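step=encode ok
step=design start
structure_in=
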């Protein structure tokens, strides 16, 4: 099932606090582009009875059933990129551009 890293969880908690969304689920969605790459969307929302819900690192995650097949093996992380900027990234073996993380 979809998971978040501790670094991502910390940033999600901060964003929920800063945005007044504490107690809401992190809703995720995804779609496959024409080139096969996966486009990700996320935001805070109230989970519904139809959602597939899980918890990872203390974060409640809500995914509509139609997105599960693209997201079920993905991991969301929060990293510093080579340019020094910090971003959420998705590590998903179902994405054709996926490269496993290199262990130092």
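sequence_out=
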């Amino acid at each position: 099932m979809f998971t978040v890293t501790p670094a991502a969880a910390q940033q999600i908690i901060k964003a929920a606090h800063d945005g007044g969304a504490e107690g809401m689920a992190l809703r995720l969605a995804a779609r496959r582009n024409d080139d096969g790459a996966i486009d990700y969307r996320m935001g805070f929302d109230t989970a519904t009875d139809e959602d597939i819900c899980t918890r990872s690192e203390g974060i409640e995650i809500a995914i509509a059933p139609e997105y599960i097949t693209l997201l079920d093996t993905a991991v969301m992380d929060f990293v510093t990129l080579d340019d020094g900027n910090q971003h959420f990234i998705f590590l998903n073996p179902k994405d054709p551009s996926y490269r496993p993380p290199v262990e130092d």
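step=design ok
step=annotate ok -> The first strand starts at residue 3 and ends at 4.
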